[in-house]
Amino acid sequence: MFNVKISDDFLIDTEGTSDGTQLKFFKDGYWYKEDNEGRDGEVEYLVSKLLTFSTLKPEEYVIYEQGKINGKNGCRSRTFLSASQSFITLERLHGNVTGIPLFEKIKEFQDVNGKVAYVIGFCKETVGLDLTDYFRKVFTLDYIVLNEDRHFHNLGIIMNADGSYQPAPIFDNGKSLLNCNPSINRSLPMAENVKRVVARPFSGSHKTTYEYFGKGFALDINAAIRWLESEPNSLYKSVLAFRLNQR
C-alpha cells in the first residue's frame, strides 16, 4: 500500500464524475482518488486484481492500488495514455458531435436493443470504431462485480497520434460489490441484497445486459478464490466471494 501527501496544485477538475465531491489528483503519471462516502479504493483494488485472473490482456484494464492520500483512504492507478494519445468519454463525444447528452438521447429508445444499436452505430459513424467487443468485456465484468455506476463518462475511446481510435481500458469500478448502495440491509442474506442492485446504462439489470452482449472473457475462478481468501475480511470481499461462488 502507498502513502502519499499531495498538494492541491495537483487537484484535477472532476467534471463528469457521478460524485462531484470526490477528490482526484494527477501527479507523476498516477491518478489518485480519495474515498468519499464508501470504500472505493478497496473496491477498485479488488476488482482490478480479479481481472488478473481473467483472459483479458493487461492493457485492457486498469490496475488500482489501495493506499493513503493526505491521510485518507483511497487508490491510485497509472495513466493509460501515452504522451501522444488523448481520451474522450462517450458522453463527451456525443455531446461534442450532436450537442445532446448521450444519457438523454438513449431515453428515446424503449429497449436494450435500441439503446445499444444507437450507441454502437453512432461510434461507428463518428470515429469508425465498432465497440461491440469492448462493451461485451465491460458488461461481463459489471455483471460479476455488480457495478452500479457504469455511466457514459466511464466508457470511452482513445485517439492515437495518427488519428486512429481504440477502446479505452476498463476503469472506474469503485461503485461495485454493494459499495455505496444505500438500499442494502446487512441483516438480510447476501442473495437478497444482491437483488437490490441496479445496473447502468442500457438496462437496470446486469443479467439482461450481460445476456445481450454475451460472455466477454473467462475467469480462473479457483485461482481467484484462493487469492481472495488471503485478503482481509470486509463486506466487499464477501460480496465478491459470493459472486464467484455463483459462477
Give an account of the 3D structure.
- The chain has 247 residues and is an alpha+beta fold.
- 36% of the residues lie in helices and 14% in strands.
- It has 9 helices and 8 strands.
- The protein has a 5-stranded mixed sheet with strand order 1-4-5-3-2, with helices on one face. A 3-stranded antiparallel sheet has the order 6-7-8.
- A hairpin with a 5-residue loop joins strand 7 and strand 8.
- Helix 5 runs antiparallel to helix 7 and helix 8 runs antiparallel to helix 9.
- It is globular and about 45 Å long.
- The two termini are 30 Å apart.
- The model has no long low-confidence stretch (mean pLDDT 95).
Quick structural gist:
The protein is α+β, with helices and mostly antiparallel strands and 247 residues long. 36% of the residues lie in helices and 14% in strands.
Q: Number of helix segments? A: 9
Average residue pLDDT: 95
Oligomer: single chain
- Amount of helix: 25-40%
Radius of gyration computed on alpha carbons: 18 Å
Helix vs. strand class: alpha+beta
The succession of helices and strands, N to C, reads: EEEHEEEHHHHEEHHHH
**How far is the first residue's CA from the last residue's CA?**
30 Å
Strand order of the largest sheet: 1-4-5-3-2
Number of strands: 8
Largest sheet: 5 strands, mixed
Percentage of residues in DSSP E strands: 5-15%
Poorly predicted regions: none
Quick one: overall form? Answer: globular
